[in-house]
Each structure stands twice: as structure tokens, then as C-alpha cells.
Amino acid sequence: MLMKLKSLQISGFKSFADKTTINFEDGITGVVGPNGSGKSNIIEAVRWVMGEQSAKSLRGGKMPDVIFAGSQSRQPLNRAAVTITFDNSDHFLKTDFTEVSVTRKLFRNGDSQYLINQNDCRLKDVLDLFIDTGLGRDSFSVISQGRVEAIFNSKPEDRRVIIEEVAGVLSYKQDKQKAESELSKTNDYLDRVSDLIAELQSQLEPLEEQSSLAQDYVDQKKQFDKLEKTRLVQLIEGLQGQSQSITDKVTAAEKLVDQYQKQKKTLTITVDQLKQQRQVLESKKDNLQTDLLNTTKRYENLAGQQNVGSEKTKYQDQQLSELAETIKANSQKLTDYQAQKVELDQQVAANQQTVEKIKSALAGLSEKEIQKKQTEIQATIDQLQTTYIEKMQQVAQVHNEQVNLKKGYEQDSQQQLHVNADLCKLEDQLDELTAGFKDQEKRVETLKKDAQTAENTLKEALSDYQKLSEQQKQSQDSWLDALRVYQQAKTRLETLSNSDVELRSYYQGVQNVLKNKTQFPGLIGVVSELLEVPDKYTKAIETVLGGQLQQLVTQNDQDARQIIQYLTKQRAGRVTLLPLSRIHAKQVSAKVQHELENLEGVEGIAADLVQTSDKWGLVKQFLLGNVCVATDLKQASKISKQLSTRLKIVTLDGEIINPSGSMTGGVNRHQTAGLLTQKQARSNLAKQVSQMKTQLASREALVQDLKQRLAATETKGSELRQQFNATNDLFKDGQSKLTISKNQITELDRRIVAVKYESQQNGDLQSDFTTQSADLSQQEKQLNADLEKISTDTNSYKQRLTELHEKQDKSQQAIAHYRDQLTDAQVTLTQAKTRLNALEETIEKTQLLVQNSKKRQATIRSEKESTGSKNEAQQKELAESKKAIAELKMQLEDQKASFTKLDQSLTEKEQELQRVQELGSVSSDELQTIKIKQTRLSEQVDHALNDLSEKYQLSLELAKAQSIAVAPDELQRELKLAKKGLAEIGEVNVGVIEEFQRVSERYQFLTTQKDDLMTSQKQLLETINEIDTEAALRFKNTFDQISASFSKVFVKMFGGGKAKLELTDPEHLLTTGMEIKAQPPGKKFQRLSLLSGGERALTAITLLFSILEVNPVPFCILDEVEAAFDDANVARFADYLRNFRHQTQFVVITHRKGTMVECDVLYGVTMQESGVSKMASVSLEDVSRKETSTQ
Prior knowledge:
By secondary structure, the protein is of the alpha/beta class. Among the domains are: 1-141 and 1113-1191, P-loop containing nucleotide triphosphate hydrolases (Rossmann fold, 3-Layer(aba) Sandwich), CATH 3.40.50.300; 516-673, Alpha-Beta Plaits (2-Layer Sandwich). Helices cover 71% and strands 9% of the residues. It has a six-stranded antiparallel β-sheet with strand order 2-1-4-5-6-7. The longest helix is centred in the first third of the chain and has 181 residues, at 170-350. The chain is elongated and about 250 Å long. Residues 854-878 are annotated as: Disordered. InterPro entries: P-loop_NTPase (IPR027417), RecF/RecN/SMC_N (IPR003395), SMC (IPR024704), SMC_hinge (IPR010935), SMC_hinge_sf (IPR036277), SMC_prok (IPR011890). This is Chromosome partition protein Smc. It comes from Pediococcus parvulus.
């Protein structure tokens, strides 16, 4: 079973606003409905979904008209969609799917979409799906009443399409059209290639000569480049050697700077340590001076005490000596007194009785009491005398202390004078140093600011230098890049502007005329040179004019004939000439102009878009006056249809629609630039070169300016560095002096404090002296007062003792008076007793005196021993103090010496530190200088490397590999010779080598291309012949089959008569027309055009049925094709449908009852809602079965 139409789904297409699905069964499906209900929209939906592109054939003005436009109650829709589904079980359609659905969608904004089995595809895919299947938008599977009329109204030549459609030769025709198009292109290419080959042949000989000279230049240039590369390599290696030496110097300088930095750091630490040691020594020295001062004071105190002790010892020795003599004398006296006592005791014993008697007589007398009082008074006197001696000793001691104190005071006073003098001197020095320090501090602050300012200025200068250096490098690199680009562009421009090169693009004849244009005074020029075309329209104008751009313009036809005669005589080619006296301007009518103004996508008339001199305006109008320029091919097609192809239309992309309707477009794989493009390229390149030259001059001026500014900045930086170094040295020197002054002020402050302390100590000593002197004077005064009092008391007691003696004498006289009787007896006893008493008293006194002397002696000895011990202790302490003083003085001297030595070391270290700082600064400057040299060497190396890179695109390693071993002197000599050789050759266009090679290669290529094209031409001709043979054979076979079938079917359809198909030119099957001749019953045999309207229609239907017999199709849609038939013919038509319904599925849109009766399924189309079509279906077989069952 053949493939069949399964369903049609319509949504938003024309009057079918709602989604409507029509299912098609086997047999005949009828579609009926009143006029205007939308029946024909169904067949149009089928044609539209199968690829119809003509809105006019779908009864619309433009394609969006097929979208539902709305009604009184409904809004317009934005989309129309139709899906047709086929049962492809027998794979009638060349696809693997057993069911194939084709969908087409159109949106009101103009967007469209095609789908096959719900997959996006192209329109071409849809058309290819139905090609050579008998289906499709223009096939006999969809037949409208207009299509039937077209058959009998067509010319015989147009009717052949009917046979071609059935014969399936459309694909052959397409293949032939492609082959013929390819053949046409091949012929065009062959002609062009032949012209190009002829042109290239004329160029090869002069190019070869120029190429040889240029090659010689290139060879010598290569040798020169090799030598130059060797020179650059040697220069770089030499510079790198120097750079290595400089690097070693930098390393050494950095090491030296680092060494000085380390020395500076070490010396700074040493100086700080020495300063700390000096402070320690200074503190120790101050402590030693304090200890010495205290020890000296102690020593002097001990010395004074020692002197007092010595005097006291001497006085004690004197007292002891005197006491010893006193004791000795008293002891002798005592011995004598003892002997006398013994005698007196005997006398007393003998006279005791007498005495007793005398005592008895004298009992009433108080002699003993007087004696007792005398004894007491005498004891008091002795005690006073002892006290007096002690006080005298104390007075002597106080006197000695006063003397010693006075001496110490005088010494302290003298020392205080020296101290005060030293203090004044130190304070004057301090004031002087302080004033100098402040001045120095101000100067240092000023120098610091100056140094800071100089440093900032230097930094700014260095920053400016760095920035300028970078700018200069960038500008120089930019200038070199621009120079290279400029030279390349200039060389390219010179090459393009070269007359020989410029002429190569012209045909041989044009070249020969232009080369000898001086012989033709009437020659104006080539069309391409007379026209000025904006970039936007270059491609369009270049394409539409094509070879006309090489046409020559002359003043008149005489000038033109002169050129033609010259070319003919010289056999120098062919040209087309435009004599201004013969050509006429082409104009677009005002009506067309008006229409163009209202059309979308029109750029304008080409002649109006191109500029030229007023003198040559005729040429412009002649060539381009009837050419319209459109934006693109789509718009061009619309414009062509609107204007009925009265103008040649060219798009901006170079596609052309000719007035005949033919179209030209596409792009060659190896498409060369046209004359206008080349001219535009030269013009643009000339402008670029001019702009580049201006920019290059500006950049070169900028580079020179930056170089000058860089040199000035470098000089300024050097001056600023010297200024900074000088200012910094002054600042450092001032700082050093300031530090020394500060240390001196600190030292003076310390010394002033020490002197003030010493002065204060002296003041304290003087204050103590005054206090002590006053105390000693008070003590001496008190002691003198005590001595005076003791003396007074002693005299008083002596007076009383005298008075007692007188009283005793008076008592004795009284006793004598009262003892007159006993005078004689008692005289002896009294005398004895008196002597004895006196002796005893004397003994007692002597004993007492001896005892007292011994006691005093013991006391003095004890005191002496104490004084001696004290003196010894003091002497020892004095010796120790003296030793301590000596040691302290030695230590102090040692400390002073150490301090002096340390101070000297500190000064030396500070001087050494300053020297190291200066050396470090010098080394840093030297390092900076070396680094600058290193930078310059690096720049020279970079410059040489840049030369290698920019001139030769080589790295140093590659350049070394390409360099030659040659001595520098020999290298310079060879370079000089190479330069001389190049100078002798002079300037050559090295591009001619490439041009010669290019032309040779192009000549070989074109020769090969010509051979290939000739081969292709031959193959295409063979292909076309094969296609023609196959198409003719198919056409003839199909025609014979259809003709035989037509004769049979005609008899059936007309109930008799005869008919046949005839070829108008049987000898030429590919172009012959087809005539239809028929003889209905009762009529004569005649052409179709001579039959009546009904007969013509039935005959045409008969032909269609004949075609279906020969080439059955899966389905056939007939749109009111039987409308003009009478009932008898309708019956025959319906009968035929019934007979063929098993092999072809019919869809019939009809009004005729006879047709409706034969339908298996009827669909009714109604418009219950205004403007909206609806479908209703009924199966007539089911109805028939129901009726039969009812009956």
C-alpha cells in the first residue's frame, strides 16, 4: 500500500482560528460547505505547510496575511501553524520514520519555523523531502480549479512541465541548471584566467630581470645582515663582558659598603659601650673623689685628734714625772717622818701620862673638831687643786683643738677660693659652650632641613629621571614600532603605487594603452580611476560594473578609433572604449524614483552614490544611471518585484538581480581584490602613511624631547646629588660637632656639680668650723670660769684654814692660859704631841699625798694608756686613712688616666666612626655611579638586543649561532665593503623578488587552474549531455505512457471520441512543447483550445487522471475541479474517483452532489461564528449501514 495522508492540523491559519484537526481515511474524503466558509483554506493550508512561498498564490498580499486577522468577537492571533501527518509505513518518503509530520509556523513579526517530526529544520529540507515523489506544493497531488485552467490555457511549451513533473526530471533539470551555472562560471573563470595568464606572461620577463638585481641586493644584504648580526653579537658580548666587570665592581662595592656598614655598626656599638664605660668611670671617679674627700677629712680629724693626744700624752708624761718625783720625795719624807715618829712615839709614850692629864685638862676644849675641820678643808683644797689641774688640761686640749681647727679652716678657705675660681671658670665655659651649642644646634637644624630638602629634591629628581627614562624607553619603543609599521606601510604603498604593479590588475589591452598613453592625447583615463566610491558602496559598485571598470574613456570616437587601431596593429590586446561624444546618460524615471523613495532597503541610485568630476559625470550616469543599490538580497528581491525588474539591482554585499529576473551572487574561494578595492586600499594606505608620518614625526620629536629632558634631569640629578652630599656632609659634621659640644657641656655640668658639691662640702666644713670654734671657745671660757671659780674656792678654803689655824692658836693660848699649871709638863708633852701630831699629820699628809700622787699617777697612767691606745688606734687609723688616701689618690689618678684614655679612645672611635661614615658615603656614591654605568651598559645591551629582535627577529643565542668567526677589525672592514656594495646597487624594490615569485607561482597556478578549468569544462559538458540524454529518455517514455493512457481515459470520460498528445518538436525532446488534441463524440479532431469550456475542463481532468494512472500518487487533493461540469460529466468524474480510490487517497472540495455521493467521509465547513471556520464530519458508509439496518 502506498503512503497515505493521515491528518491535517490547522491553528490560526486564515479563518481557522481554533485548533482544528482533520483526519483522512482511505478512499474519498469530501469537504463541503457554503461559499466563503473557508473550504479552500484547507487546500491552501496543505500547500503552505508543504513549502509554498508565494503569498499571492495563497490569495494574500504578504505572507503574514495567512495568520488569523480577527473577527468582530475575536482578537487577531500572532501565530499561524499547520501540521500535516503522513503514514510512511512503506517508506515512500525517503526517511526511516514510519510516520512523518511536517509543521510550519509563522509569527506576525515575520519569524517562521519549520519542523519535521517536531525537529527544527530548513525550508530546503521540507522541499527535498517531497522532491520527485509526485507530492509537493506544485505537484499534481494538489489540484485546484485554477490549475486545470492553466493546463488548457498554457502554451504548448509550458505544458511540457506536466510531463516533466510526472517523469521526475525536475531533479535532472536542477542538476543541469547547476551544471550549466558551473559551466558558465567555469567559462568565465577560463576567460579571466586566460586573460590573466596573458597578462602575467608580459610581466614575467621584466620582473625576472628586476628580481635578479633585487636578489643580488638581497644576497649582499644577507651578507651585510650576517656581518651586522656578528657585530651586534660581538658588541653584546663585549658589553656583557664589561657588564660582568661592572657587576664584579658592583659586588665589590656592595661588599665594601656592607663592610663599612658593619664597621659603622661595630664602631657605633663600641662608641656606645665606651660612652657607657666613660659614664661608669666618671661615676667611679666621682665616687673616688667623694671617698677621697671624706677620707681626707677623716684623716685630718684623726691628725688633729692625734696632735691633741700627743700633747696630752706629753702633758701626762710630765705629770707622771712630776708625780714620780713627788712620790719619791714624799716617800723619803715619809721614811724620815716614820723614823721621827718612832722617836716621837717614844716621847709620847713617855709623856703620855702627862698628856692624858693635859687632855683631861683640856677636855673642855674643841681642838679635835678644829683639826677635823682643818683636815676637811685641806681635803677640799686638795680636791680643788686636782680639779684645777684637770680643768687646765681641758683648757690646753680645747686650745689645741682650736689651733687645729683654725688651721683646717684656713686650708678649707684656701681650697674654697680655688673651688670658687674653678666654678666661675667652669660656669663661664659652660655659658660659652651652651651659647655655642645653641648656635651650632640652629646651624645643624638648618643643615638638617637643607639636607632633607636636598634629599627630597634629589629623590624627586631621581623619580623624575626614572619616569622620564621609562617614558623615553616606551616612547622610543613606540617610535621604533611606529617606524617599522610606517616603513612597512610605505613600502607597501610604494609597491602598490608602482606603475608596473598598478597596471597588473588591468587587462593586457588596457595595460598597453596606459603604458603608451602619451601617444593618445584624447585618452581621459580608466573608468576605475575616474570614479570616487565611498567604502560602503565599493563592493556593490565593483561587482555591478565588473569589467566595465577597465573601460577607457576618450573625448570622442576618433580618439577611440586611434586606440583600437594601435592595439590591432600591435596585436596588444582588446579594450572597451567610452567616447564622451557617443555615450548617453541613463536616467531613472520620476515615477520609479518616487517608488524607490518609498521602498525599504533602498540605498539609492548608484550614480548618485558615486562621486566624480563634473566633466566625467556623463560616464557615471552612463554606467550607473539605471542601477539601484539595496541593503541586502532580501530587500533587493522585494524591490525587484515591486519595480517589475525594470532596474538592475545590486546589494552592498555584491549580489545582483538583473532586469530579466536572473540573480548573481556568491563568493569565490580565491577572490582577488578588484580595481576599486585596490584603489581604495591605496588611498586608505596613503592616508595611513600620511597620518603615520605625522604621528612618527610627533613621536620622534617626543623621543628627542624626552632624551633632552632625560639628559637635563640626569645633569640636574648629578648636581643635586653633589649638593646633597655636600649638605649632608656639613650636616653630619655639624651633628658630630654638636655631639662633641653636647658631651663637653655634659662633662662641664658634671664637673660643675662636683665642684659645687665640693664647695658645698667646704661651706659645710666652714660652718662646722664656726660651730666647733664657738663650742671650743665656749668650752675654754667655761673652763677658765671653772678655773677661776676653783681658784677662788681654793683661796677661800685656804683663808678658812688660816682662820682655823688662828682659832687653834687662840685655843692653845686659852689652853695655855688655863693650863698654866701644867705648862712645863705639858709643854714637853704638848711639844711632843704637837710634833708627833704634826709629824703624823705630815706623815698622813705625805701618805695621802703619796696615795693621791699614786692614784693620780695610776689615773694618769690609765689615761695615758687609754690615750696611748687611743693614739695607737688613731695612729693606726691615721696610717690607714693616709694609706687609703694614697690608694684613693692612686685610684683616682688611675681612674683619671683610664677616663682620659677612655675619652681619648672614645674620641678616636668617634673620629674613626665619622671616617667610616664618610668612607661608607663615598662607597655608596661610588656604588651608585657604578650601578648607573651598569644600567647604561644594560641599556646598550638591551638596545643591541632590540636591534637583533626588531631588525632580525633573533634572540642572542640564535644570533650567535648565525654569527661568523671574524676579528673585529676584519669585521669592520667587511661591513664597510658590504655597505659600499649595497650603496653601489642603490635602492631596489626587494618586493619584486616576492612579486616575481608570486607572479611566477600565480602564472603556474593559473596555468594549472586553466588546465583544471578546461578539464572541468569538459566534465561539465559531459555531465550536461548525460543529464540531457537521461531527461530526454525519461521525458519520451513518460510522454508515451501518458499519451496512451490519455487516449484510453478520454474515451471513458467522454463516452467515446478520441484524443492524443503530440510533441511540437519531437526531434528536440528537451525543448519541445506538448499539444493536446481531442475529438469529443460528435465533434471533429482538433486542438484543446478550440473545444468548449466544459470540454476543455473535462479534457484537462482526463489528462490529470491519465497521469495518475501512469504515476499513481499516495493522495490527491482536488479543489472544485468539476465545478464547470454538467451532471453527466460529474457522474463520470465521480465514477472515476470511485474506481481509483483504492490506489489513491482523494480529498475533494466540491459543491456537486454527484461527487458528494461517492465520498466515503464528508467534512462540512461552517461559519457559525462570523469569520471563524468550524469542521463537522460524517461517515457515509456508517450512515448507509444505519439506513439499511433501519429498513
